[in-house]
Specification:
Blueprint (H helix, E strand, L loop, with lengths): L1 H25 L7 H55 L5 H122 L8 H10 L8 H10 L1
Length: 252
């Protein structure tokens, strides 16, 4: 039952991996869409996880193969020593060495299939890891290529959009400049009208100022003789002194 389950799980894993590999083979970086890139990215993640697990399995199998190989070689060395000791022993002393050697050789004979199995499993684990490693590299290269092409296409699209916006802005500026020129012409006409009106008002102000000068009598401190002459011309009697005013009161 356990053997059946192991084989079933291995078969399911192979099926999944075959689907992944098929997707990688059929993936076209030249025309990949964002959805296809996302799908390959998920596959790459799963394959990478399998690759990491395969590497750990390979390390484990390789460690076991090396350990049993080392134990086998150690026993072979021990058997060779026993063989040499047996050959050097006297005839009546060979039996113990021969018995131990026979026992050790029997163990070595039993170990041979196990050594071969561990070495085969280590090689299978390495082959499985190498396949996954190559699949991961292929998927990674295709993913980078597709992503780069998609990024470049997006960059070109963005640049085209920017150029279109700039062209539209230039067109708008040209229209605005044309509008500004028309407005300037209108402002020129308004400026001329305002200048004419200002000159007219300034002329009126100057007339008023001249009239003020003519109507305003000069200050007495400027020239008392002119001031008195102006008063006399206007029929204004000169102001009497205190003595004259007192004399006039006495006469009454």
């Amino acid at each position: 039952m356990l053997s059946f389950l192991k084989q079933y799980l291995v078969k399911k894993t192979d099926d999944v991996q075959s689907g992944f590999l098929k997707l990688i083979v059929e993936f076209d970086p030249e025309s990949a869409s964002e959805a296809e890139i996302g799908e390959l990215d998920e596959v790459l993640t799963k394959l990478t996880q399998q690759m990491v697990a395969a590497r750990a399995s390979w390390d484990k199998e390789q460690g076991e193969a090396e350990a049993i190989k080392k134990a086998y070689e150690l026993r072979v060395g021990a058997a060779e020593r026993l063989q040499a000791q047996m050959d050097a022993a006297a005839l009546d002393q060979k039996a113990p060495f021969e018995a131990s050697l026979a026992k050790l050789v029997a163990e070595l004979e039993k170990m041979v299939p196990e050594v071969e199995r561990e070495e085969a499993e280590a090689q299978e684990a390495k082959t499985y890891y190498d396949e996954l490693n190559q699949a991961v590299k292929t998927a990674s290269e295709r993913l980078k290529s597709a992503r780069a092409r998609l990024t470049e296409a997006k960059r070109r699209m963005d640049m085209a959009k920017i150029r279109a916006e700039r062209a539209a802005e230039q067109e708008d500026r040209a229209k605005v400049l044309s509008g500004i020129k028309q407005q300037a012409d209108k402002l020129g006409t308004a400026f001329e009208a305002m200048t004419s009106r200002a000159e007219e008002l300034e002329a009126k102000a100057q007339v008023h100022q001249e009239k003020v000068k003519l109507l305003t009598q000069p200050k007495e401190e400027e020239d008392p003789l002119i001031a008195q002459a102006l008063k006399d011309a206007a029929g204004v009697a000169p102001e009497k002194s205190l003595g004259e005013r007192l004399a006039a009161l006495k006469n009454k």
